[in-house]
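chain below, 82 aa
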Amino acid sequence: MLNREYLLQRIVVDPRVLAGKPTIRGLRISVEQILAALTAGVPMADLFQDYPELEAADIQAALAYALERVSEERVYALAAVA
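prediction:
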């Protein structure tokens, strides 16, 4: 199992690449693309075939990034103003 900090270093946010969307190692492969494919049931073997520059750690990095974002989410109840 790879270190979470190491995995998160594989995610790059650069305003010059894909309009600043988080990408895998600065490639034009977004975290969103990886997560959407996995959610749709695309096998990892197919992802590796479609994107030969992807590595297994990149998939883990995308999942670690999603976990990081979700763990920061907070929901607060607001009182309605009459």
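The chain has a mean pLDDT of 93. DSSP finds four helices and two strands in the chain.
thats it, cya
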